[in-house]
Amino acid sequence: MGLAERPSAAWEVADLVVQQLLVVPNPLAAWDSDMFWVSVWDSNPRRVLVSLWVPRVNAEPSVQLMVGFEVTDQSPKLQSERIVAALRRPHPLNGAVVCAGDREGAEAYGYVWSSSLAEPSTPA
């Protein structure tokens, strides 16, 4: 998937979400998570996608989640605040899907490990 073109309303919201998630202390620290990326894809240019590591990036096992938020006609500032508030809710995130990480991490947090995710090869 490619990135949607800039400038756009969705990218303005996405950029504000990033700014709010990079503050100290980490808004996602309550459930030991880190932002991985925030993006807008060309397949749905009116949707902000947020990817998170649960727990933090270097923890094991861990899972990378992706959750999408529709962009509305509301002001970008209000939309970014709505998205960050949704991300701060207690785990699990409604509508999040597993996009990487460890099967054990996904299952520990109650997520389904997708059969499309490649299993790491194990030495014989």
Please count the helical segments: 3
Derived from helix and strand composition plus strand pairing, the structural class reads alpha+beta
Quaternary structure annotation:
single chain
Molecular shape: globular
**Average residue pLDDT:** 84
Q: In terms of per-residue confidence, which ranges show pLDDT below 50 for 5 or more consecutive residues? A: 120-124
SSE blueprint:
Layout: H1 9-21, E1 34-39, E2 47-54, E3 63-70, H2 76-88, E4 97-101, H3 103-108
Antiparallel strand pairs: 1-2, 2-3, 3-4
Helix pairs in contact: 1-2
Spell out the key features of this protein.
124 residues; four-stranded antiparallel β-sheet; 3 helices; disordered C terminus
Give a structural overview.
The protein is 26% helix and 22% strand. It is α+β, with helices and mostly antiparallel strands. It has a 4-stranded antiparallel sheet. The termini are far apart. Residues 120-124 have low confidence and may be disordered.
Summarize the structure.
By secondary structure, the chain is of the alpha+beta class. 26% of the residues lie in helices and 22% in strands. Strands 1-2-3-4 form a four-stranded antiparallel sheet.
